[in-house]
């Protein structure tokens, strides 16, 4: 799979296009991705040779020679994706074409002195239970924190109580498999690049809302990670100097206002119920039932989020913004405040940007982690390092 960076990024786009839309002809691929027919012919030949694409039935033509359809070979490989949270793990078994073959949830305590051994044991148990199918290429792990390097996998995650945790090293030693570790929102961006709306965009933003607030910045087809792997900490943009305390140790961060705890604090301040809602879902139910106070909490949070999002959009100038996370289940209540604020604060030339909200379930986080592994055959920039080389070797070995 050698080639230029542009070639590798285009292979990723072809793979993702077929995985999302199904079989297409070379002419269709060229039109969808704005590529020359010669480029598509060369790149698809390489993908067929690597055992990732196959020629299918002929597509009927209204005149002239019928076009050959190309389809993705999901059986070329699979990956296990793991999402680490403050109280449990979500694991998914994902095929190369994005099809989820299975999902599991395991209890987990990141504060345990043996947390990494318990994480490895949970992954081992899941691997042992996998059904027969495509060859396993590796394990991807998404964490709510900063990761020094995908291929190293040392994690700093205050919400988990982890500082300098050697997640990647410990898992590789125990599992004897390639392991890639990444910030969970960056992992979602990798999945968007392969299977989502990012497949035809080289510059886009992913924003997540839920327990916390996050962002991933994709520029020229790559996730921007920053000098120490900590880019995208959108939740810690300062909003108010005298604002509420944030889990990071500062005051007045965006997350302190619009993360789950911020929403509940705002609801309590409005005397919503005797003791305030016990969860964001309960707050959402109150809004659904028409509670003006609950609706105001979401609208005010939406306005704060919208102003902050406009600032980020003005800085990085993406083609599209994708909003994800468990919080999108209540998006109709966020949207009135968000839409007004974000459009008002965007620079005039950017007010028509598409902001798209996608459906969500918790396995989406783990699917993002699996995408870290499934994207590595197209990683000419070397973000996956030695682990990426090992993934590619397993893929090539499986096809030989």
Largest sheet: 5 strands, mixed
| CATH domain fold name of the largest domain | Nucleotidyltransferase, domain 5
Average pLDDT works out at 88
Q: Label the overall shape.
A: globular
Question: Low-confidence runs (pLDDT<50, min 5 residues)?
Answer: 1-6
User: In CATH, what is the class of the largest domain?
Assistant: Alpha Beta
Question: What is the chain-wise order of helices and strands?
Answer: HEHHEEEEEHEEEEHEHEEEHHHHEHEHH
Q: What is the helix tally?
A: 13
Q: Could you name the CATH homologous superfamily of the largest domain?
A: ATPase, nucleotide binding domain
Query: Which class of secondary structure composition applies to the elements?
Result: alpha/beta
Give the terminus-to-terminus CA distance. Answer: 14 Å
Family: Belongs to the ROK (NagC/XylR) family.
Protein name: Putative NBD/HSP70 family sugar kinase
GO molecular function, one term: kinase activity
Keywords: Kinase, Transferase
Describe this structure in words.
Belongs to the ROK (NagC/XylR) family. InterPro entries: ArsR-like_HTH, ATPase_NBD, HTH_MarR-typ, ROK, ROK_cs, WH-like_DNA-bd_sf, WH_DNA-bd_sf. This is Putative NBD/HSP70 family sugar kinase. 41% of the residues lie in helices and 22% in strands. Helix 9 crosses helix 10. It is built from 13 helices and 16 strands. The strands form four sheets. Strands 6-5-4-7-11 form a five-stranded mixed sheet. It has helices spanning 5-21, 26-33, 37-49, 115-128, 167-175, 184-195, 254-258, 260-269, 280-288, 292-316, 331-345, 363-374, 385-399, and strands at residues 24-25, 53-59, 67-72, 78-84, 88-95, 100-107, 136-143, 146-147, 154-157, 162-166, 179-183, 204-209, 213-219, 222-223, 320-324, 354-357. It has three domains: 5-72, Arc Repressor Mutant, subunit A, CATH 1.10.10.10; 77-191 and 363-399, Nucleotidyltransferase, domain 5; 199-357, Nucleotidyltransferase, domain 5, CATH 3.30.420.40. Mean pLDDT is 88; it is low at 1-6. Strand 2 (53-59) and strand 3 form a beta hairpin. The chain is α/β, with parallel strands linked by helices and 400 residues long.
């Amino acid at each position: 799979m050698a080639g230029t960076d542009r070639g590798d990024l285009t292979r990723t786009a072809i793979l993702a296009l077929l995985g999302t839309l199904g079989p297409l002809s070379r002419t269709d691929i060229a039109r969808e991705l704005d590529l020359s027919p010669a480029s598509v012919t060369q790149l698809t030949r390489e993908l067929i040779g690597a055992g990732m694409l196959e020629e299918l039935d002929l597509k009927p033509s209204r005149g002239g020679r019928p076009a050959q359809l190309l389809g993705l070979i999901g059986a070329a490989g699979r990956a296990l994706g793991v999402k680490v949270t403050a109280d449990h793990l979500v694991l998914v078994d994902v095929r190369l074409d994005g099809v989820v073959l299975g999902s599991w949830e395991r209890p987990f305590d990141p504060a345990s002195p043996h947390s990494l051994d318990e994480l490895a044991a949970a992954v081992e148990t899941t691997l042992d239970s996998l059904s027969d199918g495509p060859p396993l290429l590796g394990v991807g792990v998404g964490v709510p924190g900063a990761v020094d390097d995908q291929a190293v996998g040392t994690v700093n995650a205050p919400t988990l109580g982890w500082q300098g945790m050697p997640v990647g090293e410990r898992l590789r030693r125990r599992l004897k498999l390639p392991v890639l570790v990444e910030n969970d929102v960056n992992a979602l961006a990798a999945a968007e690049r392969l299977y989502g709306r990012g497949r035809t965009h080289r510059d886009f933003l992913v924003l997540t809302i839920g327990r916390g607030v996050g962002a991933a910045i994709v520029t020229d087809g790559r996730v921007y990670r920053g000098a120490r792997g900590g880019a995208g900490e959108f939740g810690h943009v300062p909003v108010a100097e005298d604002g509420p305390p944030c889990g990071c140790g500062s005051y007045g961060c965006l997350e302190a206002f619009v993360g789950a705890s911020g929403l509940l604090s705002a609801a309590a301040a409005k005397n919503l119920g005797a003791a305030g809602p016990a969860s964001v879902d309960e707050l959402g139910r109150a809004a659904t039932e028409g509670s003006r106070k609950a609706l105001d909490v979401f609208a005010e949070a939406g306005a704060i989020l919208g102003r902050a999002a406009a600032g980020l959009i003005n800085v990085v100038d993406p083609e599209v913004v994708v909003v994800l996370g468990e919080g999108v289940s209540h998006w109709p209540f966020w949207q009135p405040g968000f839409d007004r604020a974000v459009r008002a604060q965007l620079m005039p030339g950017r007010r028509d940007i598409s902001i798209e909200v996608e459906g969500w379930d918790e396995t989406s986080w783990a699917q993002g982690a699996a995408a870290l592994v499934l994207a590595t055959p197209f990683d000419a920039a070397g973000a996956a390092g030695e682990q990426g080389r090992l993934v590619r070797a397993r893929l090539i070995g499986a096809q030989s």
